[in-house]
């Protein structure tokens, strides 16, 4: 997957998450969770753009770690929502969970690759 494809994929995840959140049941507690999920999912896309402008392996790695953490946080909030007894689109939530899990895997693998390459030098 190219950087441009991953930029588009992370942005799509943020947009899809926002659309999902606009459709779920609203109450004070869910609003707090929704805000956290919106922040973390949009942060993946925004910070991945910064990763692509990394000036060195160390800069790239540090920024990629932030993206990985935000993807994992998004996965947490999606899984958290799944356990609540609220109204949501089950199929869409499962799709978003799968995508968040895949993004965590992609970014974690990238971090491991960079670390192993740096350890060889």
UniProtKB/TrEMBL annotation:
It holds the Pfam family 23S_rRNA_IVP. This is Four helix bundle protein. InterPro entries: 23S_rRNA-intervening_sequence (IPR012657), 23S_rRNA_IVS_sf (IPR036583). It comes from the Bacteria. It comes from Flavobacterium chungnamense.
